Amino acid sequence: MVLGILLSLIAAAAQMSGGLLVLSNSAWPRKWEKELLALGAGFLLALVFLELIPESFILTNRNEYALLAMLAGFSALHLFEHILAGHMHFGEETHHEHALAGPSIFGAIGGLAIHAFFDGMAICAAAQVKSRIGILVFIAVLLHKVPEGLTVASVMRAGKSSDSASRLASFALPVATLIGALVVLVFVSINTELIGFLFAFSAGSSVYVGACDLIPEINRARGRAAPILVFLGMLLFWIGAHVLNNLAGL
Questions:
Q1: Do 120 and 181 meet the contact criterion of CB atoms below 8 Å apart?
Q2: Structural domain of residue 101, as residue ranges?
Q3: What is this structure's pTM?
């Protein structure tokens, strides 16, 4: 329980730091945005297929229901982003400033906040199952938290919002991450088997983030560096998982 909250707090702080760096007029974080997204996408997708999905089958012992929970997680994020929030993807906000009227700004931030909520839920649910998996989920989330923070601050600036409003928006995403973690903690006290389904739900939402949000953004990058970094992210996950297995004596 403590580990899940601690990891969620660190992830939230990383997201906030990305926004504050943009507001401090620091240009260097943008240079690394695509690289972090590429590493994060590879790491996240490897995590889903090599850890989250197999573990959810073990926890629930009901494969067909676990698969339904995964589909629900994928569908829920798609529904919230494209129907309720009108989410705009990473980087797009700064390319079309004329489209950034009030509804567009709040829609983009709403979509990113939904991302953040599910990130917090995934970290905390994983940490409740095994500390090792919680750490791996945390690393996957952390790799795209800073770019998310950069994006939300850029959205506000492109929309000519004040610095105070931009800071509030940068704080909203970390708060959403912590709320997602707290939701999982509430469910843990009700039924431990439910954590298995939350785990499967997190796997589905993570597939959506990796395949539908991060990869398309990476595909818009020029050159070969970003695609190579996706595969390096997968390799990084494999190495990290084995190191943690050895440390845990598994």
A1: yes
A2: 2-19+32-248
A3: 0.81
